[in-house]
Specification:
single chain; mainly alpha; extended
Length: about 210
């Protein structure tokens, strides 16, 4: 009857066929290889680390361990920066000057103001003298009035002198640099009203009359 054996049961036929035999154990999929393929299918390519291990790997110290040493180093760095700035104020070193004093325009303004005799640089000493005089003339109405009027006249003269200075300086700046940066007016006027010896950065020349080119 060949490879098939039929039994006489109603509606049931049992067949024995070598091609339908179960696969050998060697043909079964390897569970380790299957797990690796699943991992690669998920896009990981490596075993998933435990949560604690991952969190420990991502932790980074926000501050140094020795805070006292870090604070000391920061203070030392700030002190060095202040020392460099102070020296730059004395020598005019452009690298370490404050932002308000940097640039060729600001240097040109300083040189021009320092070369000129400005009434503003004498305003503070003169005003102090008039304040002392007003104390002694307070009992005399006429003298007190004259003292106050004289002080007002000096204030007016210094304002006019500063205006004349700025108009001439502005023409020079436009001719040399093409435009006047914002804040240059106040920078020039405030320097003109300071005592020459007290100006910072220090004047490049010791005497008046040396104008910039």
């Amino acid at each position: 009857m060949g490879n098939a054996v039929a039994l006489d049961y109603p509606g049931v036929v049992f067949s024995r066929n070598r091609s339908a035999a179960p696969a050998s154990p060697s043909d079964a999929p390897d569970p380790v290889q299957a797990a690796a393929e699943i991992e690669r299918g998920n896009g990981k390519g490596r075993p998933t680390p435990r949560r604690k291990v991952a969190e420990a790997a991502n932790k980074r110290p926000l501050v140094p361990n020795d805070r006292r040493a870090a604070a000391k180093a920061a203070r030392e760095k700030q002190r060095e920066a202040r020392d460099r700035q102070y020296q730059a104020m004395q020598t005019g070193d452009e690298r370490y000057l404050p932002p308000r004093d940097k640039g060729p325009v600001k240097r040109y303004v300083r040189d021009y103001v320092d070369a000129r005799w400005n009434l503003g640089e004498f305003f503070l000493p003169v005003a102090l003298v008039f304040i002392v005089l007003s104390l002694f003339t307070a009992s005399n109405t006429d003298l007190a009035f004259v003292t106050v009027m004289a002080l007002y006249a000096i204030v007016l003269l210094t304002v006019v002198d500063a205006f004349v200075m700025w108009r001439r300086l502005r023409k020079r700046i436009v001719a040399k640099f093409g435009e006047v940066p914002r804040g240059t007016v106040m920078y020039a006027v405030m320097r003109a009203f300071q005592l020459r010896r007290a100006r910072l950065p220090k004047p490049a020349h010791k005497k008046h009359g040396v104008y910039p080119d």
